[in-house]
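**Fold tokens**
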Amino acid sequence: MSQTDHLGLPFIDAAQAQKHITHNDGLNLLDILVHLSVAERGVTAPPPGPVEGLRLLLGTGATGSFAGHDGTIAAFQDGAWRFVSPVAGWRLYCEAESAFLLFNGSVWSDLAASLKNLQNIANLGIGTTANAQNPLAVALNSALFTALAPANGGSGDLRMVLNKSGAANTVSQLYQDNYSGRAETGLAGNDHFHIKVSADGNVWREAINIDPATGFVGFPSGATHSWVNRVINGNFAINQRGYVSGAALAAGAYAHDRWRAGAAGASYTFTQGQSDTQINITSGSLQQIVEGAMFEGGTFTLSWAGTSLGSINGGTPSPSPITVAALAAGANVTLEFAVGTLGLAQWETGTLASPMARRSLTSEQMLCWRYFYNPPYLGGNYMFVVGNSEPWRGILVELPVEMRVTPTIQGGLYSNGSANFTVESVTSKQVRIRGDVSGTGVGIFSEITSFSANAEI
């Protein structure tokens, strides 16, 4: 008698007698196999007093009336056991374990376990619906990614990999507030590492930009770190020498602190502002030399506000910004600016020009004092008394910061009464004035106007 290919249901042959037997046998098989469910699996011995319709998945080593039927589905029908051999792809529900099982042609396995090897799934939604734009969508309150421990066959490490197709593409993590972007980290449009923020999801401000070639960190929106800018007095706020707007400067002569005329001299005009001063170089050029002792070398970028063209170590004058790589550590660097407006000058590590990092006026002044110090007692007098019993008495003039080198004193020392004054000693930290006694021992010395000369650079 012929039967169906997959379930083995018997056909009713032509001119067959007692067709109802064949038909009913097919119905019994359908009743066993459609919506297949078994009470339990791994059964090897017939249970006592089975109920009509009971279905079991037999294990290996079956005994009794189950002998020789390992791995089959046993169904109790019409007071007897009937055995059906499964075919690859059959699925059943095991009531005792509340588990779905899948037959691969040899063994039954948990259907949930088989999901561990799913490949090329088009969409996956956990707690929400995935779509073409978000083929993986997850809605939950917490998630855990943990490393596979060595005890379980792993290395104990965990590395999350995010990959993009090329340098011009983007791979990032976007943080949103009610589906509106507020922060983004990653490689956005190039291979620099960016950290960006937004207050509204439309206007973005870049906070940090890390150069992959050097590791230097740029702060495109500014930074509070006071040593981002290696230019001293880059906003022309300190003018200890009292340079007068428009005055001519000879080659190498200093004006605003740390700024000197180039080889052709210079002249510039300015209007002192409350926060920043922008000058207008009308002739020649202005220079600032960045001291090598404060320079670690590498890649640096020079930027400024204004129309002046700038250059580094005598290079081609160019508009802002200028980046130079492979500068030697510990070597002085000459920054020079030609005719035009100039302000907010900044020399910083890396390839990016960030807004000028301002220092407090006090901090800026102390940096200037390393090279030039104009005492607050300009034009004043010091007076002290020396006794006749002492051959001399000295006064220490403490400098506010240690100067770059031993400075040269500018100004006069005057005698008055019966004491004569000379410079006893000068260091980069202090100056000792000597008073020699003659007669009554009362004396005055006057004025030390500044400490600089060979301390400037």
The helical segments are 19-33, 111-114, 361-369. The chain has a mean pLDDT of 84. Residues 381-455 form a domain with the Immunoglobulin-like fold (CATH 2.60.40). The longest strand covers residues 279-290.
